[in-house]
Structure formats: C-alpha cells, structure tokens
Specification:
By secondary structure, the protein is of the alpha+beta class. The protein has a single domain, classed as Beta Barrel (Hypothetical Protein Pfu-838710-001), CATH 2.40.320. About 25% of the residues lie in helices and about 35% in strands. It has an eight-stranded antiparallel barrel with strand order 2-7-6-5-4-8-9-11, surrounded by six helices. A hairpin with a 2-residue loop joins strand 8 and strand 9. Helix 3 crosses helix 6. The termini are far apart.
Length: about 260
C-alpha cells in the first residue's frame, strides 16, 4: 500500500454529492505545492478531526490522463513561466476509471484567480482538438490568429486523492508520469503535487502545509513535465523548485 493510500484510509469518507455541495468552485484561488509524502502526512495530521476523503464506489484514488495543448511558440507554457498576469491552459482530461472526458480551458485573470471552463468531449478525441473544441477555446482565449494552431505537447498520467474540509478542497496527485509529444517520458514516484482550492484567501489546509515547511510554488504538472523533458526550453523558476527536491530538469542547463 502506498503512503498516500494508507494516509487516505485513516479518514472518514465523503461522497461526491457531498463534496460538490461543500466545495464546488469554478472561480477559485489555488495554491500549489510539490512535496514528499512525509510532509503531506504531517500536514494532514494537524487536520485529523475535520478532514474527509472523497470516496466513490469504495475507491479513494482515481486515475487521470491529461493532454496539454499549446501553440508552436509555447504561449501557454511561457505565459506561466514568465508569470504573466493573464494566461491560459488548454487540456483534455480523461477520468480513466469512468471513461468520461472533458475539454478544459483555464484562464488566469488579473485578480490572481483561475476560472475554469469545460465542455464534454469524446474519449476518442482526447489527443486532438476537434473543430468544436477549437471554437470553444477561441471563445475563451485571446490568441493572435497565427497562434490558434494549438497542438498536443505533453500528456500526463497520475492518480488523484481529494481531501475536503468545510468549503476547502485539496487534491493530491501521485505516481506522476509525463510523456512528451516526441515520445520521451519521465516518472516522479517520489513527489506529490498538492493543490489547495478555495473561493477565498488562505485556508487551514495551506496553514497546515506551511507548518511542515512547505511553501506555495508557481508550478503545474505541465511545467514539471516540460522542464524535466525538454532541454531546449530556458530555465525558469520551477527548475529551482525541482532541483531542491532532488530532480534535475534538463532545461536548467540551457542559458536564459
């Protein structure tokens, strides 16, 4: 049994309907952390009484596959790398346990909030943007006409466990495998990507993580995968984060 599964089993379950009712949010404030399992275990111990774990049909860990799309000049990746106040992310997300698939567009506004839009998508089209998918993206993302040719750049696979306390949610992604469009792949079994989500400011989940020495980082699974796999990209803030965690991003050796 993995440390994350063992940790999740210690807490009371919450159903999907309850979780959606307690912590549903499409407009939200997110904070991300990349930590080792021991750090998460310490943070969760501080919230033992109120914390519940999403459980569906007896399962508490769920398999995901995500395909990220970007422009030829990597406008999405570089927008995040350079901390542009307004940026975007386009991806398909497949829930492997159910076969459901969605096309998602995340837009970061000038108030440091992330707004997520999504539409149902055919599982068979998960690796491509269909004409309907492109039209959906075009309504939400203001790209120069030349940049509208979004293409798949990276796929990730991982398992997700969701913790809920009051109106706050924390997702924990484990067993991450990233595959570049050229076929190269890398795994990070020793790292957890943690994201706290709320409609307001700092949460009890954040404070518990801070007490364990974790600090928010501007990083995503897309950033992790691209930094670890593509040596042609310039080094950016998240390469330092990965290096501190004992990972060696290929792009940290490329001059800015």
């Amino acid at each position: 049994m993995s440390p994350l599964v063992e940790l999740a089993e210690r807490h009371r379950p919450i159903s999907l309907d309850e979780a959606v009712g307690d912590a549903a949010m499409l407009t939200r404030t997110d904070r991300k952390y990349v930590v080792r399992p021991a750090v998460l275990a310490g943070a969760v111990a501080d919230l033992r009484d109120g914390l519940r774990v999403l459980e569906i049909e007896g399962h508490r860990a769920f398999r995901y596959r995500t395909v990220y799309f970007d422009t030829p000049d990597l406008a999405s990746y570089l927008g995040a790398a350079r901390s542009r106040p307004q940026r975007f992310k386009v991806r398909t997300r497949t829930y492997l346990d159910s076969g459901a698939c969605w096309l998602e567009v995340k837009v970061r506004n000038g108030r440091d909030q992330t707004v997520k839009h999504r539409m149902e998508y055919r599982l068979a089209d998960a690796d491509v943007l269909t004409p309907d998918g492109r039209a959906f993206v075009a309504e939400l993302v203001d790209l120069p006409e030349a940049g509208r040719e979004l293409r798949p750049t990276l796929a990730t696979a991982y398992s997700r466990t969701t913790f809920v306390v009051d109106a706050m949610r924390m997702t924990v992604d484990a067993d991450l495998v990233c595959t570049h469009a050229d076929g190269r792949s890398v795994s990070a079994p020793d790292l957890l990507v943690v994201e706290t989500k709320s409609a307001g400011p700092t949460t009890a989940l954040d404070r518990a993580l801070w007490a364990q020495g974790a600090r928010p980082v501007s990083i995503s699974k897309y950033a992790v995968g691209m930094a670890l796999l593509d040596p042609t990209l310039p080094a950016h803030k998240w390469t330092r984060v990965l290096r501190r965690l004992g990972r060696t991003p290929l792009n940290e050796r490329t001059p800015r």
